[in-house]
Amino acid sequence: MGLSPSEWFTEIFQNEGTAFSLQIKKHLHNERSEYQTLDIYETETFGNLMVIDGCVMLTQRDNFLYHEMMSHPALFTHSNPKNVVIIGGGDCGTLKEVLKHDCVESVLQVDIDERVTRLSEQYFPELCDKNEDPRATLMFDDGIAWMKNAEAGSVDVVIIDSTDPVGPAEGLFAVDFYRDCYRVLGEGGVLVQQSESPLLHAQTIIKNVQQDLKTAGFSDAHTMPFPQPVYPTGWWSATIGRKAGSVSDYRQSAVTAKTFSTLYYNDGIHQGALAIPEFMKTL
Ligand code: AG3
């Protein structure tokens, strides 16, 4: 990883024989935190870029796609989301989207690595400008342990905004963790988990997430594909699980009447994300 002589940052997807590159102006920051290696670059055309352990996390130009799809479909699937917990999400991009919902009374973000948030405050200030909202709490702790100890039925929506399922995030893609989420969710609770690339991971990670959610007790699980240019293959997904009822039922009139602005998400996008691509129908 790092800079090639022509000043490009490249994330190589070794197993897939592909890579994604961004031309960079400057390497702004590098550190080894207690948990991972963190890099920030200024790119030529995508704004600032955050990289964790060599994997692209977000850029200023296109993070809205991911953060909007990690939040709004799940929040509009719950009938009245008041208490939201974000596991991971230290850059605060998901938090910012969740806080756009007036019905939300509290959002707790539990990320293991405080340095991710501190760097985001510095290099992605537009994602952190709602962190002082009295409804928001930033906790730096192990999300798996937090979920194990949380009170049953105390949360309406759980959002798992993690890195790839290797290293610290591995335990977030596991049936035991989903069982804890299920217990902590109230009646009508909704969970959403970032679930990697439909092109690369349909038969592996996505299939497992869907199956594990059902094993943990969720009545329905559905994977929503969306574009994300800077991640492997440029095509990413989020998988929603619902404690009772179908993921296809959502508060459609509330989406149409929403008063906050988004750059990608709207009712047509929500409906489109509920469609199942042919090759994913057999998962
Ligand atoms: N979470 C998704 C990271 C997965 C990207 N994978 C990769 N580049 N290999 C990003 C955190 C955004 N809040």
Descriptive overview:
This protein starts with 7 loop residues before the first strand and ends in a 9-residue tail after the last helix. The strands form two sheets. Strands 8-7-6-9-10-12-11 form a seven-stranded mixed β-sheet. It is globular and about 55 Å long. By secondary structure, the protein is of the alpha/beta class. Helix 3 (93-98) links the parallel strand 6 (83-88) and strand 7 (106-111). The chain has ten helices and twelve strands. Helix content is 29%, strand content 31%. The structure holds 1-{4-[(3-aminopropyl)amino]butyl}guanidine. 1-{4-[(3-aminopropyl)amino]butyl}guanidine (AG3) binds next to strand 5 and helix 3. 1-{4-[(3-aminopropyl)amino]butyl}guanidine binds at residues 11, 55-58, 66, 89, 91, 93-94, 161, 163-164, 194, 231-232.
Largest sheet: 7 strands, mixed
CATH third-level topology of the largest domain: Rossmann fold
What's the total helix number? 10
Fraction of helical residues: 25-40%
Number of E-state strands: 12
Count of distinct structural domains: 2
Low-confidence stretches: none
The CATH superfamily of the largest domain is identified as: Vaccinia Virus protein VP39
What is the residue-mean pLDDT, rounded to a whole number? 96
CATH architecture of the largest domain: 3-Layer(aba) Sandwich
Strand content: 25-35%
